[in-house]
Amino acid sequence: MNTILVDTNVLSFVFKGDTRANLYAPLLEGNRLAISFMTVAELFEWANTRKWGEARTKRLEEPLAPFLVVPVDIELCRVWGKLRAAQQAKGKTIASQDAWIAATALRHGLPLVTHNPSDFENIQGLEVHTALEK
């Protein structure tokens, strides 16, 4: 069993029962599923933006239980800083949230499964998987 990092967009498809989740089932099945702390933060931002109540927001934690949540540490911060600087040097921008997710994958040597591979283009050493046709 391999551990893979699941991007926020793919996780949201699974949580919402979106039909696009079916595209990712072959990439997810049989693997240990990990998510970045940033994905958890994005989910809580989403719930608060949509004005979920406290009880409903608390229930958001239940479907996260099977996932390994990768926390932040000093080395992850170091990787994030190098990644952001490298992208800027190439004239490429990367959203802070996407940089945290990419840095998490790089820091732990995990492949990243995403629905938005263009967010992670030209990041040296990052293994990206998607169900989108190339």
Describe this entry's structure for a reader:
With 134 residues, this protein is α/β, with parallel strands linked by helices. It has a single domain (3-129), classed as 5'-nuclease (Rossmann fold, 3-Layer(aba) Sandwich), CATH 3.40.50.1010. 49% of the residues lie in helices and 12% in strands. It is built from 6 helices and 5 strands, in the order E-H-H-E-H-H-E-H-H-E-E. The chain has helices spanning 8-16, 21-28, 37-49, 54-59, 74-89, 96-108; strands at residues 3-6, 32-36, 68-70, 112-113, 128-129. A 5-stranded parallel beta sheet has the order 3-2-1-4-5. Helix 5 (74-89) crosses helix 6. The longest helix has 16 residues, at 74-89. It is globular, with a radius of gyration of 15 Å. The relative contact order is 0.20. The mean pLDDT is 94.
| Number of distinct helices | 6
**Secondary-structure element series:** EHHEHHEHHEE
The CATH first-level class comes to Alpha Beta
What is the CATH H-level superfamily?
5'-nuclease
β-strand amount: 5-15%
- What fold name stands as the CATH topology? Rossmann fold
CATH-level-2 architecture: 3-Layer(aba) Sandwich
Mean pLDDT: 94
Q: Separation of termini?
A: 26 Å
Contiguous uncertain segments of 5+ residues:
none
Structural class: alpha/beta
Number of domains: 1
Strand order within the widest beta sheet? 3-2-1-4-5
What share of residues is helical?
40-55%
Outline type: globular
